[in-house]
Design goal:
By secondary structure, the chain is an alpha+beta fold. The protein is built from 8 helices and 5 strands. The strands form 2 sheets. A 3-stranded antiparallel β-sheet has the order 1-2-3, with no helix packed on it. It has a two-stranded antiparallel sheet with strand order 4-5. Strand 1 and strand 2 form a beta hairpin. Helix 1 runs antiparallel to helix 2 and helix 4 packs antiparallel against helix 7.
Length: about 190
Amino acid sequence: MAALYSPAPDITKSSLTTVRARLQGTLDPGIDVRFEVEVSGRGAAPPEYRRSELVVPPAEYSIAPFQLNTYTNEALAAMKVGAALSLQRNAARDLYDLRDLIRAGAHPVAILAKQSGHVLQDYAERSLGKLEGLTYQLARDELLPYLPLDEREQLTEDAWLETTLEVAQAIEKWCGEAAAMQRGDKDSTPEAAK
């Protein structure tokens, strides 16, 4: 088991719904490490929006595999759409997370269909403009230090613009399918849309 030297704990967020803590330090022989944990005070999600995953950390972390209860990709994507399009938020990681969820096959249409038709229309109409505000420079400032080395090299301005367009189109498509589901269109079930 590796020892942690010069531990530096810090609470980086504390709100009514979330507490985020960070522990930084050095492993033997002089490897800088940082651990972050976020705890939500929100109520448990319905069972259909939850899953359990086995996390196997890299061997150099000297941490045993552990089970993690988390949201499904569909629930995460629906929440990330709301976060990315929030008028009070401007976080490049929302766009990056949505890109990864899209590539993982997330299809949050049934969850988005629980929003009002006005919200879905607003999301679809504002998605590209809002996401364009998450600029490449913002992505470099916010994301670059936290990305694996191979992904840092891939974070070019052209790649970021392509990601912006990819995510905006996905949001528009999901919102259109969710609105069709609300109307009861025959081909709008989650199974038909896949």
